[in-house]
Design goal:
heterodimer, A: alpha/beta, nine-stranded mixed β-sheet, two-stranded antiparallel sheet, 6 helices, 15 strands, B: elongated, binds flavin-adenine dinucleotide
Chain lengths: ~250, ~325
C-alpha cells in the first residue's frame, strides 16, 4: 500500500499567540513548531500499516523551507520519504490543490490527514483533497483498518460513533483515538540518523489560487477577574448563576 | 439568488442548530437584499423554519437519505444551490456539517470559512470573523469567490426569531454513488451530547479515579448537562475518548461550563474558551483555571460537588 500522510507544521500547543504588522501576521517569535497533533496520530497509524501489512509511507507538507525540521521529524519517526511543496500555505483550498497534484503524481491508495490543524482550525484540507481527487472520504476518524482495497473506519459523531465501510482510494481526517496515545513515538537517535539520509524532495508548486484571504487577527477581549464564592456559601453560587449570569 | 441553508434533523425533528443557522442565514440575506431557502432531509414539519427567517423550504423525502452520508448530502446541497442560484451556503459546525462543508465547497468551487462567530462585517468583499488558534484568537477572513460556504460556530450567533412563513416545495435531487456505507451507529440517545449541550459539567484528574464520577453525573443530571473531561482522564481510560475536551479533543461552546478538579492548562482552556460562563471548583487557589473563570470556588470537589447538587435540587424545586 502506498500511503501519503499530510503533515501540518503548527505552533506547539503551549504557544502564546501574538500578531505583528498591525495584527495581520502571526508572530513566530519564540514559537516552537511541531507536527500537528491530529497528524501525529495519523502518522503513527501509517507506521502501524507499514509494520503489520507492508506499506510505503510518504509525508508531505505545503510550506516554506522552515517546515523541513518538522518533516525530518516525521522521517525520524519512520516515514520513508518526504515531499515539501515549496510555497507558503495561504488557505485551505490552495493547500488542498497542491496536495491533490502530489496525490495524482504519486498514485497513493490511502491519504491520511488530520481532522484539522490546530492553528487555523479550518478543517477543510482533507475533505477538499478528497473532493479534488475523487477519493472516498471519512473524517473524525478514530479507527482505520484496510484489507486489500476495502477499508473499515470508525468516525466520531456528535454523541457517539459510527462504523463505516468504504474502499480505496481513500482520504481520512484522523484524530486522537486513531492510535493509543502511548503508541506515539518519539524519534530516537537511530531514527534521527537514518532520517538524514532519507529523501526530502522539494517540488515546485502549481501556484494554485486561494479562495479566501486573511485580513486581520484579533485577540479576545481580556476577561475580568473571577468572582470567588466561599465553599460554605454555595447558595450564593446558585444565586449568581441564576440572577447574574442567567445560565440556570 | 437566495441564501441557502442546510438544516439538520434527527428522526424528522429539527436540531436546535438548524434554527441557529437559519437565523444566521436571515441576517446574511437581509444584508444582501435577498431571501433564505432551506434544504431539509426527511423532516416532518418544516413550518417552524419560517419563524427563524426561512422563506422557502426545499423538502427532500427519500429513504436513501435516511442515514447521513457526506457525499450524497453534499451532492444534494450542490444541486439545491444551483437550482436556487445561491451565492452563499450556510451550515452549522456539527460533526456532520463540518464533514459536508469542504465537499460542498469543492463541488461549487466556493471559498469556505469555518467556525464563523458573527454575521459578515461586510458583504463586498465578503468578510467574516472566525476563530483561529483553537479559540486563542479570531481571524477576519474574506471569501473571494463568487459562491461562498460558511460554517457557523455553535451558540455564537444564537436564535433570532422573525415573523414569516416558509413556503414549501418538494425537491427530488439525483443521488451519486455513496462511496461510504454506514454499517452501524453507536449513540447514547438518552444523554445530552457535548455538541448540543447548553451546560457542560467537566472533571479532571483531581477526581482521583473513575469510581468518583457518580457525583459528576448526578450534577450533570440535575442541570440537564453533558459530561466532559480533561485529556489525562480519557487517556487513563477513566472516561470515554468522546468526552475529552480541549485543543486536541472536542471544542465546547456551551452557555455554562463547570470545571471540577481541572488545572486549566492552556490546551484545555483553548477548547472551552468559547463557552460563555465558566465556573471552576479546585482545591488549589493558584490553579490557572481561576484566571479564565467567571466564578470560582476554592475547595475540595468531594465536599463542594455533593453540596452543590443539594443546593441545585432545592433551587429547582423552588423554581419548578
Ligand atoms: C500536545 C498536547 C495536547 C493536549 N491537549 C489537551 C486537551 O485537548 N485537553 C486537555 O484537557 N488537556 C490537553 N493536554 C494536557 C494538558 O496540558 C494538561 O495536562 C491537562 O489539561 C491536565 O488535566 P487536569 O487538569 O485534569 O489534571 P492535573 O493537571 O493533574 O490537574 C488536576 C487539578 O485538580 C485539582 N484537584 C486535585 N484534587 C482536587 C479535589 N479533591 N478537589 C478539587 N480539585 C482538585 C488540582 O489542584 C489540579 O488543579 C494536552 C497536552 C499536550 C502536550
Amino acid at each position: 500500500m502506498n500511503i501519503l500522510v499530510c503533515i501540518s507544521h503548527v505552533p506547539d500547543t503551549t504557544s502564546k499567540i501574538n500578531f505583528t504588522d498591525d495584527n495581520t501576521k502571526f508572530d513566530t517569535n519564540g514559537v516552537q513548531f511541531v507536527i500537528n497533533p491530529n497528524d501525529e496520530f495519523g502518522l503513527t497509524r501509517a507506521m502501524w500499516f507499514k509494520e503489520k501489512q507492508g506499506a510505503n509511507v510518504t509525508v508531505v507538507n505545503v510550506g516554506g523551507p522552515e517546515t523541513e525540521p518538522t518533516l525530518r521529524k516525521a522521517l525520524a519517526i519512520g516515514a520513508d520519504e518526504a515531499i515539501r511543496v515549496n510555497t507558503e500555505a495561504k488557505d485551505g483550498y490552495q493547500v488542498a490543490k497542491e496536495l491533490a497534484n502530489v496525490v495524482k503524481d504519486g498514485g497513493y491508495d490511502l491519504v491520511i490527514a488530520g481532522r484539522e490543524s490546530i492553528d487555523y482550525n479550518g478543517g477543510m484540507v482533507p475533505g477538499m483533497l478528497a473532493g479534488l481527487t475523487d477519493a472516498n472520504f471519512v473524517t473524525n476518524c478514530i479507527s482505520l483498518e484496510v484489507d486489500g482495497t476495502n477499508a473499515t473506519a470508525i468516525r466520531e459523531i456528535d454523541g457517539g460513533k459510527e462504523t463505516v465501510s468504504t474502499s480505496l482510494p481513500l482520504v481520512i481526517g484522523g484524530q486522537k483515538g486513531l492510535v493509543e496515545e502511548s503508541d506515539l513515538r518519539i524519534p530516537n537517535m537511530r531514527g534521527i540518523m537514518m532520517a538524514r539520509k532519507k529523501p526530502l524532495n522539494v517540488v515546485e508548486p502549481s501556484n494554485a489560487e486561494t479562495e479566501t484571504s486573511s485580513v486581520k487577527f484579533e485577540k479576545p477581549v481580556p476577561k475580568g477577574a473571577v468572582t470567588l464564592v466561599d465553599a460554605d456559601n454555595l447558595d450564593e453560587l446558585v444565586n449568581l448563576l441564576h440572577n447574574e449570569a442567567k445560565v440556570i | 439568488m437566495s441564501v441557502l441553508v442546510y438544516t439538520e434533523s434527527e428522526q424528522g425533528k429539527f436540531k436546535k442548530t438548524s434554527f441557529e443557522v437559519a437565523s444566521y442565514a436571515k441576517a446574511v440575506a437581509d444584508q444582501m437584499g435577498t431571501t433564505v431557502t432551506a434544504v431539509t432531509f426527511n423532516a416532518n414539519d418544516t413550518s417552524e423554519l419560517g419563524k427563524y427567517g426561512v422563506d422557502k423550504v426545499l423538502n427532500i423525502n427519500n429513504n436513501d437519505l435516511e442515514k447521513f452520508n457526506a457525499n450524497s448530502y453534499a451532492s444534494v446541497i450542490e444541486q439545491a444551490a444551483k437550482k436556487e442560484d445561491s451565492k452563499v451556503i450556510i451550515l452549522s459546525s456539527s460533526a456532520d456539517s463540518k464533514y459536508l462543508a469542504p465537499l460542498v465547497a469543492v463541488k461549487l468551487d466556493a471559498g469556505y470559512a469555518s467556525n464563523v462567530v458573527e454575521a459578515p462585517s461586510n458583504t463586498s468583499p465578503f468578510t467574516v470573523k472566525r476563530t483561529a488558534f483553537t479559540n486563542k484568537a479570531f481571524n477576519m477572513t474574506s471569501i473571494d469567490t463568487d459562491v461562498k460556504v460558511i460554517g457557523v460556530s455553535k451558540n455564537a450567533f444564537g436564535l433570532k426569531e422573525s415573523s414569516g412563513n416558509a413556503s414549501s416545495e418538494d425537491f427530488s435531487p439525483s443521488l451519486p454513488e455513496a462511496g461510504v456505507t454506514v454499517q452501524s451507529v453507536d449513540k447514547a440517545t438518552d444523554k445530552v451530547t457535548i455538541a448540543d449541550a447548553e451546560i457542560v459539567v467537566s472533571a479532571g484528574r483531581g477526581l482521583k479515579g473513575p469510581e468518583n464520577w457518580g457525583m459528576i453525573e448526578e450534577l450533570a443530571d440535575v442541570l440537564g448537562a453533558a459530561t466532559a473531561c480533561s485529556k489525562p482522564v480519557s487517556d487513563l481510560g477513566w472516561r470515554p475518548h468522546g468526552e475529552h475536551v480541549g485543543q486536541t479533543g472536542k471544542p465546547v461552546a456551551s452557555n455554562l461550563y463547570i470545571a471540577i478538579g481541572i488545572s486549566g492548562a492552556i490546551q484545555h482552556l483553548a477548547g472551552i474558551n468559547a463557552s460563555k460562563v465558566k465556573v471552576v471548583i479546585n482545591t488549589d487557589p493558584e490553579a490557572p483555571f481561576f484566571k479564565a473563570a467567571d466564578y470560582g470556588v476554592v475547595g475540595d470537589a468531594f465536599e463542594v460537588v455533593p453540596a452543590l447538587i443539594e443546593k441545585l435540587k432545592a433551587f429547582k424545586a423552588q423554581n419548578a
